[in-house]
Design brief:
The structure holds two protein chains of two kinds. Chain A is of the alpha+beta class. Chain A is built from two helices and five strands. The N and C termini of chain A lie close together (9 Å). The chains are: A alpha+beta, B alpha+beta. Chain A: InterPro entries: LSM_dom_sf (IPR010920), Sm (IPR047575), Sm_dom_euk/arc (IPR001163), U6_snRNA_Lsm2 (IPR016654).
Chain lengths: 104, 124
């Protein structure tokens, strides 16, 4: 459960979620779940004119399976903590409840 | 960092009975009220309509109650009720929008054929 736990530490940060259909949405990370479904608030589509239907949407839920990238602010990322967490998970064999994602 | 992760069930519970815009993997946009969901993001949408947009024209085609299989869902957006009707777009009837869609498809097909022919010339 490495990455869902990691994203929980990023709640409140500004992120840009790029989807597999090339849609990119910036917003504040509101919540994440074990499938890496993401909820964003205060959303703004990056290429707004190309997606007029999104103009009236301010909060959205994004299914984890359609995400290509989640762009994080560099200042919010502590690489050392990630390294340590990954080493711990690797030692535990990535075994955890809901082991659908054995190695993210 | 190994703390409690939000329970999978809660994600969409806040969106129940809200007017949502659902984008599907095939590019369709469905608008309606979320009545039910499950862990796969299968959705039951009430008063559903498909919003078709061509250029500056749009049309909401009514669909009734829909069950959408979760694997097709891209995103669910909460619609700001004040800004719901898209600005800069004119409402047209179902018949007009379907004609516009056919015209656009025809144009895209022609453009593709022209491009194919131009590529062929470039090879020489």
């Amino acid at each position: 459960m490495l990455f869902p736990s990691y994203f929980k530490t990023l709640v409140g940060k500004e992120v840009v979620v790029e989807l597999k259909n090339d849609l990119a949405i910036s917003g504040t990370l509101h919540s994440v779940d074990q499938f890496l479904n993401v909820k964003l608030t205060n959303t703004k589509v990056v290429n707004e004119s190309k997606y007029p239907h999104m103009m009236s949407v301010r909060n959205c839920f994004i299914r984890g399976s359609v995400v290509r990238y989640i762009q994080l602010p560099a200042s919010a990322v502590d690489v050392e903590i990630l390294h340590d967490a990954t080493r711990r998970e690797a030692r535990a064999g990535f075994q955890k409840e809901g082991g659908r994602y054995p190695s993210l | 960092m190994m703390e409690e992760v939000p329970l999978p069930g809660t994600a969409l519970a806040d969106e129940l009975d809200k007017k949502l815009l659902i984008q599907l993997r095939d590019g369709r946009k469905i608008i309606g009220f979320l009545r039910s969901f499950d862990q796969f993001a299968n959705l039951v949408i009430d008063e559903a309509r498909e919003r078709l947009i061509v250029g500056e024209q749009y049309c909401d085609c009514p669909l009734g109650i829909q069950l959408i299989r979760g694997e097709n869902v891209v995103l669910l957006g909460e619609i700001d009720l004040e800004k719901e009707l898209p600005e800069g777009l004119t409402a047209v009837s179902e018949h007009e929008i379907k004609t516009a869609i056919r015209a656009e498809k025809e144009m895209n097909r022609m453009k593709a054929t022209i491009r194919q022919r131009m590529d062929f010339l470039d090879l020489e």
